[in-house]
Amino acid sequence: MKLLFLNHNTRYGGTYYRAMPMAEQLAARGHAVTLMTVSNRCRWRVSWSNEKGVRLAETPNLGQDVSGQGYGPPDNLFRLGHAIFQPYDVIQMFDHKPNATFPGFVGRMRGATVVADWADWWGGPGGINDVPKRRMPAIGAFEQWWEERSKRWADGVVTISSVLKQRAVGLGIPAENVLHLPTGAASDRIQPVPLLDARRRLDLPVNRRIVGFIGIGQGDLEIALNAIRPLNDVWLMVVGHKSPHVRLQAERLGVADRLWQTGFIDDHEVSDYLGCANLMVLPMKDTAANRGRLPNKLLDYLCAGRPTVASPVGDVRSVVERYGVGILAQEAQFSFAVDYLLSHPDISFGMGKQARVTATRTFAWPKLVEQLERFYDFLRNKR
Q1: What is the CATH number of domain 2-184+364-382?
Q2: Which of 148 and 69 is assigned the larger pLDDT?
Q3: How far from 121 is each of 98, 126, 216, 318, 337, CA to CA, in Å?
Q4: Which CA distances in Å does 325 have to 189, 190, 244?
Q5: Is 98 a residue whose pLDDT tops 70?
């Protein structure tokens, strides 16, 4: 099949880590896959490359951050033109932003089967767009409507979580047209590294107690900062961009001297950084946005072979409970759970070992992509 993947955000950000591995697996299975994602560098120019068999287009980023990603005029115009002149068998639209959905539906006019990939809960109370102030409130109102409408108009819907699958079916979409497909684990990119080896490579004290966190989304980190507050010898490592807001929170809570913000880390170094942590944390407030997602960071923790202290929210709760890869804790018990795993290394080691097994078996990309291929065939045969 000839496939087009339309990712709304930038390369190495957010849904890219769902779209790209999926594309790579499909390319390895003999499909011709083109992935479009927004460039981090180019304002006007489109950059083409071939990455592990995937034809990758990095589109212009001018206007990308106008009231949310996906609205850049040069990006949208290029994608629309491509969809008009290049026919595809299947187009998968990663979330509802204009640069993902508008070209997708144009492509259907050329005969493509259109699949909406739903990876986040955006609209309504507690959704990603539920923020105190928007630069353009009209865009927020449009997105609340279009998030659901674009799923109804698609030929099929793929959801990252069971919560979003329930939401899709609740919109009146036939259950057989909805596939719950979690993101696969990057078990090749992230490998377990023994703690002592990782500490030596990064020149860190061997006996320091470190809890780790990775990712761009750092909005709920105050839960983790509060958790280490009474644990005087515990550090929090945040792998990812250095958020001034998180630094201010740490200063206010009196733990700034035990907050390590690494800044951006290249993919080939991530294993060492995760490996230097005794355990990982996944703090999440109980909001619609968090219930609707399966964070990539949880899968990274599984790949690294580290146990996780997580909030019992959405599919994170079911993964931790079902596979025994960590401890679930409400905000008031988060500190106790962290201390418990740090104080019981045998239990922590066993959970970490089970985490890696879960990553390579349950969340293996080849297994998940087989389901996706069957779903494509089912939808195409229905048209």
Answers
A1: 3.40.50.2000
A2: 148
A3: 16, 9, 17, 18, 28
A4: 20, 17, 31
A5: yes
Where are the domains positioned within the chain?
A: 2-184+364-382, 195-361
Least Cα distance to 294 among 237, 241, 227, 215 occurs for: 215
Give the tens place of pLDDT for each residue, 231-264: 999 999 999 999 999 999 999 999 999 999 999 9
- Nearest CA among 212, 206, 208 for reference residue 194: 206
- How does strand 54-59 pair with strand 47-51? antiparallel
> Are both 2-184+364-382 and 195-361 of the same fold?
yes
Average pLDDT over every residue of 347-366: 97
Which three-class secondary structure state does DSSP give residue 106?
Answer: helix
10 Cβ neighbours under 8 A, 6+ residues apart: 16, 37, 38, 39, 40, 61, 64, 69
Residue 182's pLDDT is: 96
Half-sphere exposure of 112 (CA within 13 A, CB side): 29
Flag whether pLDDT at 68 surpasses 80.
no
d(CA 313, CA 338): 17
pTM of the model: 0.90
Once rounded to an integer, what is the mean pLDDT over residues 116-125?
A: 89
**Beta strand spans in the chain (E):** 2-10, 32-38, 47-51, 54-59, 90-94, 113-118, 156-159, 178-180, 209-214, 234-239, 259-263, 279-282, 308-310, 326-328
Token output for 7: 């990712």
Q: Are 54 and 24 in contact (CB under 8 A)?
A: yes
Query: Does pLDDT of 131 surpass 80?
Result: no
Q: Distance of CA 175 to CAs 84, 152, 172, 196, 376, Å?
A: 30, 12, 9, 49, 15
CATH architecture of 195-361: 3-Layer(aba) Sandwich (3.40)
Please name the residue that has the structure tokens 């500490």.
199
